[in-house]
Amino acid sequence: MMEDGSFIVTGPVMAWRPADSAGWHFLSVEGSVAAEIKYAALGRASSFGSIRVAVTIGDTQWKTSLFPHKQTGGYLLPIKAEVRRREGIASDSEVTARLDV
C-alpha cells in the first residue's frame, strides 16, 4: 500500500466469457494486496463485500467497485469496454492499475 490509501495491482486481464470480446473483463486482486484493501475499507464495504474505488490504468481514470471473489478470497476489478478501448487492453493483456480506496 502507498501512504495515501492507494494500491498498485499488476496482472493479466481475464475475460468472463473468452469467446465474447464485448463481455465482462476483470483484473484479479489477490493475496496481501487484497487483505490490505479489505483492512483499509473496514466499515465502508457493502453488505455483500464490494468496495468502492477510484481506478487509474494508463491515462484513464474512473470509479467502480471491487467485487468479492470467492475462489481466491480476493477481489475482481471490472474493466469496462471504454477503458479497454482507450488503453488498448485485450483479454490476457498484462495491466497495472492504481486503486484508491
Explain what this protein looks like in three dimensions.
It is globular and about 35 Å long. Strands 1-2-5-4-3-6 form a 6-stranded antiparallel β-barrel. With 101 residues, it is α+β, with helices and mostly antiparallel strands. Helix content is 17%, strand content 44%. The model has no long low-confidence stretch (mean pLDDT 90).
Based on CA atoms alone, the radius of gyration comes out at: 13 Å
Mean pLDDT across every amino acid position: 90
**Helix amount:** 10-25%
Query: Which regions have little confidence, pLDDT < 50, spanning 5+ residues?
Result: none
% residues in beta strands: 35-45%
Task: Name some characteristics of this structure.
101 residues, alpha+beta, 2 helices
